[in-house]
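testing teh design pipeline on a random one, pls ignore if ur not involved
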């Protein structure tokens, strides 16, 4: 017998996401009970972020898809689309697998539109998943905005604390999330960092050694030689050149806290940050002197470099990798996987590694240009294709529901008359049954109308002359771009060659 199963996943942490695992589970169980389904298994992913982790890093989903592919699963109950995947392409990939193995997908959240059938389904699913992804980005934005006031108070918010400091809050040992819990127990004016006494000593030693360093050494301008000389002091022997640099330039040692978030730099100097001083007011000269000295040295970029970019590891600074899952290496035919800022070929020795932003933009421009070109020369034909493909199923469903609803309206009217004439429990029951049907159908109609509206909006972007003219300076949102890119079926990438694009729009085979 094929199984009915539940998939659960919570993202971010409990504070920011009201949809806890147990709530999702209750909803799913209730949904199943109403339909007399027996739940055979629960795949509980815990709180892994779908946005952060690839399929490989979500063992329960991987196991579930394996079970799907071996024909064990009949239906899956999940809270919302975004529980399966936060990225459009990944969602579509999962959606395809479920479709292929004829697995029924059920969303248990009240306001989640049901999965779509028919020709337009994949496109609509892409739009809906796009909305889910958009929400995920908003969550990241909200997280950023919630941090700014704390940063301005002088609390350390971004990345791990500098050398010689540690966070007062103990990290939950069982949580893999990088995000720390908000600090609640801090008093006004109290810092969320504290000194590590041993390391404070190291820092102090470092500044006084730099103070004492001879001008001969500085004149050589060689940073690694400079470090070598400092490391002759046994208290500094274990420091790496990178650590030496980071300590010297760290303004927190003189009570100033500098943090970078979402492209902005916040430099705070207040009573909170002043408590974190390592050098006293009188010793402040040592800090400035050390900084003057290192400025005279040739320091490799790997040491001074934009360390903040890598260290912060803030997701929103990484590109969205819109083409992952449709990208293939033109040489080895292997998929290209998004790693930080580039797509890398699965074959380790292969050098095909385009920059995500660049390639996404290039492919987008070409698909968009193709749509525009098509729009200019064969507008009627293109519109026909798109409308037929994406619009018809909605119209059909809406017409059907409209009919059903007006039939129900008439029935309700006559039953109401009936009930007035012959008040009986039977008649009462029948009437309330009809009213319930009416409510459900109206709700469904509302969903379809809203989807139809989104769909039409998308198509409208294609039929506005002004939009066509904007090709040279496109200011579409990331989501709109994503929607357009969801028309891409596969892209073969080869260095020095133009990417070979296949689209879902039937007539498109590359440009020209
Ligand atoms: Zn390759």
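output:
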């Amino acid at each position: 017998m094929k199984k009915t199963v539940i998939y659960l996943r919570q993202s971010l942490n409990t504070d920011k996401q009201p949809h806890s695992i147990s709530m999702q589970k209750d909803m799913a169980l209730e949904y199943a009970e109403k339909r007399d389904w027996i739940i055979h298994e629960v795949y509980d992913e815990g709180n892994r972020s779908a946005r952060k982790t690839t399929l490989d890093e979500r063992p329960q989903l991987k196991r579930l898809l394996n079970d799907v592919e071996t024909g064990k699963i009949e239906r899956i109950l999940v809270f919302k689309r975004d529980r399966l995947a936060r990225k459009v392409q990944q969602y579509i990939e999962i959606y395809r697998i479920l479709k292929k193995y004829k697995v029924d997908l059920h969303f248990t959240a009240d306001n989640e539109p049901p999965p779509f059938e028919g020709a337009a389904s994949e496109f609509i699913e892409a739009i809906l998943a796009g909305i889910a992804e958009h929400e995920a980005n908003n969550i990241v934005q909200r997280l950023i905005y919630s941090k700014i006031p704390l940063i301005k108070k002088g609390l350390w918010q971004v990345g791990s604390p500098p050398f010689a400091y540690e966070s007062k809050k103990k990290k939950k040992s069982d949580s893999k999330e990088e995000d720390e819990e908000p600090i609640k127990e801090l008093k006004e004016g109290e810092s969320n960092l504290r000194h590590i006494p041993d390391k404070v000593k190291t820092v102090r030693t470092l500044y006084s050694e730099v103070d004492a360093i001879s001008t001969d050494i500085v004149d050589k301008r060689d940073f690694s030689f400079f470090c070598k000389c400092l490391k002759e002091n046994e208290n500094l022997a274990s420091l790496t050149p990178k650590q030496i640099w980071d300590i010297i330039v760290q303004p927190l040692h003189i009570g100033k806290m500098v943090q970078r978030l979402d492209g902005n730099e916040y430099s705070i100097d207040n009573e909170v940050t002043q408590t974190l001083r390592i050098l006293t007011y009188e010793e402040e000269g040592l800090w400035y002197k050390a900084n003057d000295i290192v400025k005279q040295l040739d320091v490799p970029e790997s040491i001074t470099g934009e360390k903040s970019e890598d260290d912060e590891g803030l997701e929103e600074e990484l590109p969205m990798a819109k083409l992952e899952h449709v990208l293939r290496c033109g040489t080895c035919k292997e998929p290209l996987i998004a790693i930080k800022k580039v797509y890398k070929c699965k074959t380790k020795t292969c050098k095909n590694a385009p920059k995500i932003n660049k390639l996404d933009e290039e492919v987008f421009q070409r698909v968009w240009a193709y749509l525009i070109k098509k729009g200019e020369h064969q507008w009627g034909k293109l519109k026909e294709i798109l409308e037929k493909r994406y619009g018809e199923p909605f119209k059909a469903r809406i017409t059907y529901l409209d009919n059903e609803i007006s039939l129900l309206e008439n029935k309700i009217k006559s039953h109401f008359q009936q009930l007035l004439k012959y008040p009986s429990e039977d008649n009462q029951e029948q009437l309330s049954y009809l009213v319930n049907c009416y409510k459900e159908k109206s709700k469904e109609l509302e969903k379809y109308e809203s989807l139809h509206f989104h769909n039409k909006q998308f198509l409208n972007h294609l039929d506005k002359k002004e939009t066509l003219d904007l090709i040279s300076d496109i200011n579409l949102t990331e989501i709109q771009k994503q929607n357009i890119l969801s028309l891409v079926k596969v892209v073969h990438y080869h260095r020095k060659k133009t990417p070979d694009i296949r689209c879902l729009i039937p007539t498109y085979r590359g440009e020209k």
